[in-house]
What does this fold into?
Amino acid sequence: MTNSDTSDDLSQHEFETAPFTAAELGAIAQYREETAGIPDSFDGFDLDHVHWHVSEFGRSQTAAMLRSHANMLNTWYLAVDSALGGLLTCTEQSTHYSTAAARFLKAESDAYHRTRQDFEHTVTVWTLGLDTRPTGNYPLPTRTLNLAMQSLES
It folds into this structure.
């Protein structure tokens, strides 16, 4: 699950609004420094990866790997939390975010929450041994409600 904002292209957040200020760009650079490599560490992280890790390194090393990933999520959370304050203080009144900053924070928050939910679901299924059937017997990770189709979707 790669964060869409890991490239230097911030223009998607500036679409039809004022561009980031120098202070905002500084806060974003700080955020990216704090999260460097973390979103990419979750690329390909799924149940198959956990099973592969167990077969290659054993259960104890897999548990250590899962703890390491949990620590990375904590670091990411703290960076998002810090960016919430850092980007707010970049405005003149320090009472609201610029449109571009709000878009950036929403995208980063969404990426963090999606990654955390996928991680927690994978760890729960593996830890409890609930992945023994082809379709699994633990609820699928869902993020949205599609009322038209009367379904929960990922």
About this structure: The chain is about 60% helix and 5% strand. Residues 59-88 form the longest helix (30 residues). Confidence is low (pLDDT under 50) at residues 1-7.
